[in-house]
Write a structure and sequence with these properties.
Strand content: 25-35%
Shape: globular
Oligomer: single chain
């Protein structure tokens, strides 16, 4: 398994190519913009993109979807149903396709890699984290040393930070996942930064 990190769009949102080196296939996690650059990187890495996995549906994580689908019209775009229901606004723009829903406990295959879905609402109602091998893609559920913002449409402090309507809280769920894993790697927000607070798991987020 190989993970390629790209900072895309005007605010440098992290986009990832999750690559299975055995099958030469990949999934794009959170294509926030610059579809042509993502496609060029996949070609340079010798992998075929098979799916798009969205941690949530905010525009800075989805703007590149349309361009990827123009080049790869038959690949599925995975998104939690609670965010699918919000598509159509400025913050949750349309994707240009009917997403494939996934939910807590589902597993998506990327070649030989199993990607487990953890529903972690709070930043958005349909926010998810994606666990693949020794990597946890947290989207905007976790930020470096903190949790995701909750001041956008659909945000909920009760869900992300406390045992409110969603129990356990999303941050607790992430930390329980991290603490149950017997790995020792680092957390990153960008290629050059680390997050010692979560050093027992490899976290990828925006």
């Amino acid at each position: 398994m190989k993970i390629r990190v790209l900072q895309v769009g005007p605010i440098g949102t992290n986009c990832y190519l999750l690559e299975d080196e055995d099958s030469h296939t990949a999934a794009v996690v959170d294509p926030g913009d610059e579809a042509d650059r993502i496609l060029a990187q996949a070609k340079a890495d010798g992998v075929e993109i098979q799916s798009i996995l969205l941690t949530h549906a905010h525009y800075d994580h989805t703007t590149g979807v349309a361009g990827l689908l123009k080049a790869l019209p038959n690949i599925p775009v995975y998104l939690h149903p609670a965010d699918i229901a919000r598509l159509g606004s400025q913050v949750f723009p349309p994707l240009g396709t009917e997403p494939t829903p996934y939910d807590d406990g589902d597993v998506v295959k990327v070649g030989g890699i199993d990607v487990q879905v953890l529903h972690t609402p709070g930043h958005t109602p349909g926010g998810v984290c994606l666990m693949a091998g020794e990597a946890l893609f947290t989207g905007d559920t976790l930020f470096q040393g903190s949790m995701g913002r909750i001041d956008f449409e659909g945000g909920s402090y009760e869900d992300i930070g406390t045992a409110g309507s969603y129990s356990p809280s999303s941050t607790s769920k992430c930390m329980e996942t991290i603490s149950s894993a017997s790995v020792s790697v680092t957390c990153t927000t960008a290629a050059s930064s680390s997050c010692s607070a979560f050093s027992s798991w490899l976290l990828f987020h925006a």
